[in-house]
């Protein structure tokens, strides 16, 4: 039995007729940028998250750096972020000339709130709270610290569509919530796409100006902005998938419950969900001290797995200028050496799930 780590084709096949009808509708409309599909999606996604406003952009990275830009964070400013994250989180800070200040993660793979204050300096301007793998960060403590030190909060929700903390959805705790709709996400488009949600009308207005060459009115440019627009076809297709997102999330939750109850190998550390938080399981990430050998064994079993992520940002060539060496963030580095994402996708069959469980349990 061959099992891929992700099967986006199965998600498409389930709603193929709806997707095709929407794509044709947009194509026949003759309007492909900043039209009624985007306007409708922005309203529907804002309603879904509980935010007042939503602005579509071209991708998740654009959502991050544009959010920091409109918040006025730039050269010399420091932004606190967890060390174990996809490098786009850090790039969203550094693109603006700001300095990413990396903090170790907690046992839930998110920012350890107890370690934030020791990293705050007179140059600290914001905290970037990443909700990694689909689990909400410890937002009550992060918000308390931000309020105490008068810091902005940007949330990286690229993997947490629908995840909540204390009953409140990720993306709505801080000044701006940044989403990616990359195809593999729980709410994935059919290409690159992203969005920023906020409860601040001024932030929403500035994002919508900035994403369109800095213009509010055509050819009247207020700032030197960007070309970062969520197109009509992607917006329309996202509207289709958003209607089914809760069902799709429940399906992934059921697969993960099977993993959690079925995997019993003592060499495997299973993921945990923080009390008061929910996980939408963008990835099912286990840890193993012999991770590379486990991955090779699973490959022999015809099971694909992926490491999210093998090189922490502080050890990447791109961020050597920060001066952080191997050993600077030992927990982050340990996670990078041990994490492995098992197959998880909508349309995964019970037989496929059981086969993965059996193979993991037989690893020695």
Automatic annotation (TrEMBL):
KW Transferase (keyword) present: yes
UniProt record similarity statement: Belongs to the DegT/DnrJ/EryC1 family.
Originating organism: Candidatus Eisenbergiella merdipullorum
Top-level division of the source organism's lineage: Bacteria
InterPro entries, sorted: DegT/StrS_aminotransferase, PyrdxlP-dep_Trfase, PyrdxlP-dep_Trfase_major, PyrdxlP-dep_Trfase_small
Catalytic residues, chain numbering: 185 (proton acceptor)
Keyword Transcription assigned: no
Pfam families: DegT_DnrJ_EryC1
Transmembrane segments: none
Name by which UniProt lists this protein: DegT/DnrJ/EryC1/StrS family aminotransferase
GO biological process: polysaccharide biosynthetic process
Keywords: Aminotransferase, Pyridoxal phosphate, Transferase
Xref: Gene3D superfamilies: Aspartate Aminotransferase, domain 1 (3.90.1150.10), Type I PLP-dependent aspartate aminotransferase-like (Major domain) (3.40.640.10)
Single annotated GO MF: pyridoxal phosphate binding
Record-listed N6-(pyridoxal phosphate)lysine modification sites: 185
């Amino acid at each position: 039995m061959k099992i891929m780590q992700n099967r986006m084709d199965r998600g498409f096949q389930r709603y193929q007729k709806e997707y095709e009808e929407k794509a044709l509708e947009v194509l026949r409309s003759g309007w492909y940028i900043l039209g009624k599909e985007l306007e409708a999606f922005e309203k529907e996604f804002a309603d879904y998250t509980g935010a007042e406003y939503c602005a579509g952009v071209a991708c998740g990275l654009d959502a991050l750096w544009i959010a920091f830009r409109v918040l006025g964070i730039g050269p010399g400013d420091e932004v606190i972020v967890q060390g174990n994250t996809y490098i786009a989180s850090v790039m969203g800070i550094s693109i603006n000339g700001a300095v990413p200040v990396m903090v170790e993660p907690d046992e839930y793979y998110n920012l350890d709130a107890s370690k934030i204050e020791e990293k705050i300096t007179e140059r600290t301007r914001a905290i970037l709270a990443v909700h990694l793998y689909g689990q909400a960060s410890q937002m009550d403590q992060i918000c308390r610290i931000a309020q105490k030190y008068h810091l902005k909060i940007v949330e990286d929700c690229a993997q947490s569509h629908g995840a909540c903390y204390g009953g409140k959805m990720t993306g709505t705790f801080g000044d701006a919530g940044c989403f990616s709709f990359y195809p593999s996400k729980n709410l994935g488009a059919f290409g690159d796409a992203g969005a920023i949600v906020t409860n601040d009308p001024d932030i929403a207005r500035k994002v919508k100006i900035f994403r369109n060459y800095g213009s509010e009115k055509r050819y009247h440019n207020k700032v030197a902005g960007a070309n970062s627009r969520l197109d009509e076809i992607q917006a329309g297709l996202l509207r289709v998938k958003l209607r089914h997102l809760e069902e799709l999330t429940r399906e992934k939750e059921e697969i993960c419950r099977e993993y959690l109850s079925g995997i019993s190998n003592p060499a495997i550390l299973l993921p945990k969900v923080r009390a008061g938080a929910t996980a939408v399981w963008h990835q099912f990430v286990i840890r193993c001290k012999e991770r590379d050998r486990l991955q090779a064994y699973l490959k022999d079993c015809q099971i694909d797995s992926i490491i999210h992520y093998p090189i922490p940002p502080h050890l990447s060539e791109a961020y050597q200028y920060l001066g952080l060496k191997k050993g600077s963030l030992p927990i982050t580095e340990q996670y990078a050496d041990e994490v492995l994402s098992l197959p998880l996708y909508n349309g995964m069959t019970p037989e496929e799930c059981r086969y993965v469980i059996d193979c993991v349990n037989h690893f020695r």
